[in-house]
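Handoff note, outgoing to incoming analyst
You'll be picking up this chain. Sequence as last confirmed:
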Amino acid sequence: MNLKPLALIVGGSRGIGKSTALRLAKSGFDICLTYHNNEEAAKAVSAEIIQLGVACQILGFDVGNGAQTDAALLKLMDERAPEVVVYNSGIAKDNLMVLMTREEWESVINTNLNGFYNIMHVVLFPMLREKRGRIVVVSSVSGEVGQAGQVNYSASKAGLIGAAKSLAREVGKKNILVNIVSPGVIETEMTAELPKDQILPLIPLKRFGTVEDVSSVIHFLCTEPNMYIHGEVISINGGLST
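Most recent structure output, in case you need it:
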C-alpha cells in the first residue's frame, strides 16, 4: 500500500495547530493531531481533514505526562514514522512573578517544555531510522524578548528555542530539519483576554496576526523542497520585536 506522508500536529485541534493541520492536509499529508481536553474540537477538525481526501487520526492525552504520551504514540511510531512533526502544544497562566503560584509555574513549564521532551523522545528514533523529516517548534515572541506577567510562559518558550536549536545540531546530519516559529500577538482563544488596545500601537503593521499568518510559514518549512533553513527562529509578529 502506497501511504501518504504523515504529519503529526501536537496541539492540532484549535488555532495555529488547526490551521497548520488543514494546510498540510491540502498538500497531501495524512494527519495525526493531538489534543488534551477538547475532543469535540478535535473531531470537528478531523472531519474537515477527511473531506480533503486524506486520513486523520486524533489522539487525546496530556503531553506533560510521559506515560500518557508513550501510550498514545509508541504504537503509531512503530507502524509509521512521521515526515513532519509540529510541536504546537502550549498553555499560559499569567501572573506577576511575586504572586505566581507554584502550580502556575510548574503546569506551564510541564506542558510547554517538558511536553517537548516527551514528544521528541518518542518520535525521534523512527525519524532517525528513516533519515528524513521536518520538525517545527512553535515558540513565542515572549520567549525571545520576555514579557512582564509571563515569567513562566516566557521561560518555557525560551527553553523551546534553546532545545530546538540544540536538537538541530544533533539531527541535521540525518536529514532532519528543525526550525522554530515565534508568533507575536495572534488572534486565538489564548490571546482573547489581552489588552489589545494597548498592544496594537506597538505593532508596526497595525494589526494582530492571524493563525494563517503563522501556518503559512510552518507549511513552507514543512514542504518546500529547496530547504537550507535549519536551526533558525522565524519571528512572525508584525514587527513587534524589531
